[in-house]
């Protein structure tokens, strides 16, 4: 069962220090392509879905490389516009042990951020789509992209596509242009069928306070507020992450339904971590895969968590695992060489 | 005390993805030379023995490189034939955390597999040999190599060399030509003085069933069947491996004598693993080293397990550790920098 | 608050095997610059101090690169002499799991070792200095450097600079020229305000015996002997290191004052280790930073241990962490990506 | 003006020695994707055409990577079948000065070679196609692929697509299965509108002899024979290559029309060569581009030669140049940095 | 004889494709530090002068690395300010044979471009300076930097430092903010003692037309106009570059004095070129070195051209050659190994 | 026809800057094994001869790697002693265009230089040898190695092996210990059947003066003096090298017989050069190969020059070409891809 899923967001070049070095400790950078929504799209394409990217890239070799990398991994890039300007970049030093990974964003003024909302013909782009996937990063980039995200969500509603929205709250981006994070995110969440968010996102958007001592209770309280505020919303999902040190995290996953039913995927120990970036996006793609197939919540969140865990073993922003790879992990979890 | 040990088997090129990448995630492959029997031979050469390879390699730069690498590490390659054809290859993605290593064999139709059994002049090749080492991979490659392995084992018996045989059962290889695994392996094991095998191998070859709940008990029951079936057999040895995740295994070792006496090397925690390939071959070389020296079973299996553990810290298929390296580990196990 | 700290010692080139390979397993070496005193100096420069190197390097591209690397990280190299000769080298195979890192020194006959004690104009070099940092490696290199180290320490006393001395006892270096380690180290320690040493160093220098079962008690007993023997001494500090395996150590830190007061920084688990070399030097720089600021012993040793731990996450000999990096670790220790 | 061009042929992995090393001189291989027809297709896609690949790749990570690389550069891979088996490989040592590049083929028994002719649904695959591009390598791989190539050419004729055929005569491949090169190539050339071939190919297929002293005269005589033998044929094109040494060749291009009219692109000096592989395929794509646009022969052959020359400056098998890149070269040929 | 030379301009990170690849053909970038004025400064520092950089870098790891690299090569960076913002970048694909190198600038909105002219305390920064070196790139970046450059030049005049100005006309930068290139460049040239420029620059700034057929005559005519327009000007110098292809250029050098005297350094064949970037800056540093020493024009331009040629053999933007390296080339030009 | 050739000399590690960088421009070194006599030996082993190395290497991983590399390429290393000490090193920056390659020796005090002459059992080592190959570097290292070289030459005479001696005059090495170059080299040359040397060597050893304007005439005059002074000498051979720039040399070869007959291999243009080191040693091995086969002088010198030229295309110190590779070059010299 293959769905058509349209992802809208910025493509970024990740320039990372080799090995566990600090940035420019030696004079080389490894290049990966990423972006929260593209990460979800690539993972869904690898799961066999017809995933399509809608974005704007710079009219140069970097923009071309970014779109090419998505095609390489199976995404449809016919909806990726090419426009004058620069590509958003981020520099990454991956960290180790007690030294956290550091991300240095250099994405201001990108061709994507400057693209007018009208540049996208949503009815055509969403033609035949089953789902539209957005994240809170896109509206945080400025008025253009905020308007475009909202237009996309409303067009999805018009065409009957479901809307998946990943909170991904980034205060620094909003502050840079003094955007009304609360108002805009509320409008977007109001269109969502599926929300990747936890109580902290709900605190930002709805102003709630979550003093519960148990993480799960906080998530459930946040979900209750979300379902109350957003009548269209059907599911809220998130991971619970406990870093033991930079190389080793513990991860579990929660999926809450509108009826309050909560499915929990039990904690996995994840380490030594190869690449932590994109773990949340891989989880989101896994949950979407389960919902597309109409799986039970337990199976859905189990698949989502397994996908999220697997991502930590793969260099780069993309989860390149297939459904078989994820199911092997869910099913048995054998760790010796596969010959 | 240095023995002459002749190893017969295929040399393979391992083409592996860099770091923890998936295959061809980036456009580079690291090349290592390996092969179950060559791995044992190189380790024995590093331990100071006169280890000689008997094999057939392709008459091209790849075959030349394979033989050259054995010489570099001290093996005698005067018994390596050069013949038209291709080299056997395997592609490796090393895996990480929950993602198992994946091996993609591309070895069909190699110069080794096509070499006629008569191509090897066993009396000359085994001249002065103390041991012949074979594995279950060689007969699994087809009628030519099955005949050659059997001829080698029988020639060893004729010259008085002892025979070491590593089960290494690979069902896919046997299925490819519908070879009679059970019959051929039985014939080979019947010639062996030393068998590297566990209850699963015995299940395949002798049809036994091992429902014991304790791994050690299963191994001992398998060994009892082996000693009953193969009157020449004097020792059976194997590792017990418990993968905690892909990067961390626990490993112990067992050596059972014909008299039923069992020496156990207690569990070592092995992680984070650098390279798991060749761990069993390093163990086999360690056990052979102990038997060559006539050590007590406890010392022998301790040395074997230490050798097997050390291999996990060394990139490539070969255990490049020396006797001093292994004994440092057995003796004290200090882990700070050696200056 | 920025101090001027003068470091005197040899600059070395570290040539290390890539990844976790053994030396020359593949035909490449990574080059880093190091040296016990330079490591302390670079770390202090990164902490904002005016750190100056005094040394002698070879008049070739290697010597030039060594001095250039110190400048790159903020040290003043106007006190680095250039003289005919060779650079000291060391080859490093980093080890893994049960396989200890191996260091192969090739430093005999270096331009530094051959430089006459009179080559250094200490009053000028120490002009305005708050601290002089030395280690026990320098006098171990031969009569020239032993005389130079002593001249430096005495000149520091004359100018009013405090003296920091890191024991770093290396028996092999002393044996090579049959130097009087005990006598010379005693003379140097007699000039020190701050000593990085433990009971083992005190055993060497003062002949004491420390049969206490608890490591901390042994350190305290050693410190008591040191304060008794060296009236100028005000602080003694050291780390307590418990390697669990090559990739994972536990580390705590102790600072003992002349009044016997002991500050202990509790044990940190450090692993998987990226680069263990320079951990002690990073600790020393951290302790010096605390003393320069007049911090309480607890804060000082906490900062020192955090600095030492951080070093294990950074490739190369230098701790490139800033004060903010270290304080982030002391303060909270969050391990997720910093965006 | 964009045409739909369907390319049918094998995808190969090229494994090449780094720099100018011999194969396995150091233990690394660089991986590129290639194949005569894919090279033409990628170049046409980069020129803005709708280029589609028809092929069969192995059902493993290598086959996936090969198809992904074509998508990355803009080809449609929906016609690429996935089947059990292995991928064809070739090992390359690039050579230098007086040392010729060496290619070591390891392509026997590939999934492509084993695919039955009936596996391809040509009417569907050629739907809307303006051109079909084939080469003489495909029929040389065995009866399956010979039948498939012929079926493709005849289907093209049925749908009205033009047929482009690149002789690429490889005697070793034909000998391996004693295929009737002359008969099969004749049948294929009889379907071609455009033939990339020179007098040597005509000698093989038609048995002619070309004793003319001038290369151009030989080509023209060969072309005359080709037009006589193959009534459908409209154009024959080839390069004239004079290697001065391995790093420096001179290259010109010839296009002969059925009317005997000959357009010649004058000799270009090409060196120091970065990567010679794919030079002929880049030339073929350039000529096809001119014919698709209905350009005059002089402009067409000029563009073709410029494309062929540019390929020599680009690592890998593919010509990644755009139309603008090629036209910049034809137009003026300035060689300083483009800022 | 060592002069103090202050260089003012932007520091850039160069991110270049490895080998001769196109940008992002493989997922890696090599990082170098550059900038027209910094290139001159590093070369002068390597020649033994006290070269100091005045600039503004971003307050992040990239800015820190840029300043560190200048220190590594001997420049004084105490005049480099650290400010919020981004670093200017440029991406480079080096080209080959007929394929020109391509530079992709991504420098808009850098910390340097945004720094107010008042941020620099010129009297202090120029204290003791013998020369100030500027280029036409700095004023082209916007009003801030145009004002800063002019302030610097006037402050130099006030302190008695000579002014060296490299035209480096970049129309795209001026167009981006519609700056008055002609007016501003005129004002700057009016302050210069030494101008690196040719007739094309003079055409831009003074509006002259240079129809002479001989390059040298055009340069002389341009110089005549320059001396007429700018009474302070004493020397004008430039290279004459004839690219034969991308890997091979011919280069000569011209130095014209106010008296019309012209010194010509005869043409050198330069190829195969390793790195063409920074060739003009290396030439400028060489000419400055000659003028600082008061050499005759012939010796000065000969040294300048040799320095410029040598740069083409060194990877990166900097000419790392020493005076001895340059003089070896001027003197004899032996090309065999120096042992 | 395969000869047994014994080579005596030092094994060195070459540590070279990557690409065309200067030493330590980036923090990596490539490692190659070399040594004038080992280079000849490896080339002869690749030509099919039984080449054996006699040397002393350090008892560490570096010495082991050096010997292993010779075995890898087919040399017998049973005559390589292992002794305490260090390995000789040399650092190489390969140069480009006008920038000469630079070699930085760091070989003083090596295990080889310190080995006593008596350490070698020459009668045993030379058992069955057809040739002994020495060079002028070995006696230049000090009294030990001078005595050892002389002992080897005399033992060869005693056993009937012919002696090949390569002048390789290195004044710096002799000056370091004020060795009597003239006397010692004379003694060695007096034992030689074959001398690789030109008029400059003869000038050093015999004091002659060679004012002839033609290089060939100078060589012939030097040869005449050599044959007069050394009655045992039968052949003298050398290359004539004309560097056009660092990347491009022209090379011819001369072989003079005792009867004055001169065979000349005409000039080859060699460029762009990949690696110039070992070119003379490859030539020497080629000439030895011809003499072993009893070829005519023209064929011998032609083969020698072709071998020398080929070496320039191969990275590292060794000529890895086979006889077929060299003969392909002599025979026809085609430069296109070999498929």
Per the CATH scheme, the topology name of chain A is UDP-N-acetylmuramoyl-L-alanine:D-glutamate ligase
Which segments of chain A are poorly predicted (pLDDT under 50) over 5 or more consecutive residues?
none
Share of residues in strands of chain A: 25-35%
CATH top level class name of chain A: Alpha Beta
Oligomer state equals homohexamer
Number of strands of chain A: 13
Q: Overall 3D geometry of chain A?
A: globular
GO molecular function, one term (chains A, B, C, D, E, F): kinase activity
Pfam family, one (chains A, B, C, D, E, F): PfkB
Family (chains A, B, C, D, E, F): Belongs to the carbohydrate kinase PfkB family.
Keywords (chains A, B, C, D, E, F): Kinase, Transferase
Describe this protein's structure.
- The two termini of chain A are 29 Å apart.
- In chain A, a hairpin with a 4-residue loop joins strand 12 and strand 13 (262-270).
- Chain A is of the alpha/beta class and 339 residues long.
- In chain A, the strands form two sheets. Chain A has a nine-stranded mixed β-sheet, with helices on both faces. The first copy, chain A, has a four-stranded mixed β-sheet with strand order 3-2-6-7.
- Chain A has helices at residues 36-46, 61-72, 111-114, 122-125, 137-140, 143-159, 171-177, 181-189, 199-206, 215-229, 279-292, 297-311, 323-331, and strands at residues 4-8, 12-16, 28-34, 50-58, 76-83, 88-93, 102-106, 131-135, 162-166, 194-196, 235-245, 248-257, 262-270.
- Chain A has a single domain (4-321), classed as 3-Layer(aba) Sandwich (UDP-N-acetylmuramoyl-L-alanine:D-glutamate ligase).
- The longest helix of chain A has 17 residues, at 143-159.
- The first copy, chain A, is globular, with a radius of gyration of 19 Å.
- The interface between A and B is medium-sized, with 27 and 27 residues.
- Strand 3 (28-34) of chain A pairs antiparallel with strand 3 (28-34) of chain E.
């Amino acid at each position: 069962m293959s769905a058509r899923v349209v992802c809208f967001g910025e493509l970024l070049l990740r320039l990372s220090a080799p090995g566990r070095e600090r940035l420019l400790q030696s004079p080389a950078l490894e290049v990966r392509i990423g972006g929260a929504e593209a990460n979800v799209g690539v993972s869904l394409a690898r799961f066999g879905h017809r995933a399509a990217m809608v974005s704007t890239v710079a009219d140069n070799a970097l923009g071309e490389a970014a779109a090419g990398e998505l095609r390489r991994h199976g995404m449809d890039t016919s909806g990726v516009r090419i426009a004058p300007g620069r590509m958003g970049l981020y520099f990454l030093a991956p960290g180790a042990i007690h030294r956290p990974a550091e991300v240095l964003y250099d994405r201001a003024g990108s061709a994507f951020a400057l693209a007018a909302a009208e540049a996208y013909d949503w009815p055509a782009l969403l033609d035949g789509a089953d789902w539209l996937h957005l994240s809170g990063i896109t509206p945080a980039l400025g008025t253009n992209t905020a308007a475009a995200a909202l237009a996309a969500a409303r067009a999805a509603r018009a065409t009957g596509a479901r809307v998946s929205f990943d909170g991904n709250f980034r205060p620094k981006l909003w502050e840079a242009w003094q955007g009304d994070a609360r108002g805009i995110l509320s409008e977007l969440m109001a269109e969502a069928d599926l929300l990747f968010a936890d109580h902290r996102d709900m605190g930002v958007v709805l102003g709630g306070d979550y003093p519960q001592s148990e993480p799960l209770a906080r998530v459930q309280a946040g979900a209750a507020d979300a379902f109350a505020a957003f009548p269209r919303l059907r599911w809220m999902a998130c991971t619970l992450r406990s870093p033991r040190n930079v190389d080793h995290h513990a991860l579990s996953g929660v999926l809450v339904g509108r009826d309050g039913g909560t499915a929990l995927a039990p904690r996995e120990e994840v380490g030594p971590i190869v690449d932590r970036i994109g773990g949340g996006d891989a989880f989101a793609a896994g949950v979407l895969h389960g919902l597309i197939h109409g799986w039970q919540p337990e199976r859905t969140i189990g698949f989502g968590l397994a996908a999220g865990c697997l991502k930590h073993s793969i260099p780069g922003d993309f989860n390149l695992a297939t459904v078989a790879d994820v199911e092997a992990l869910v099913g048995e979890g054998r760790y010796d060489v596969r010959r």
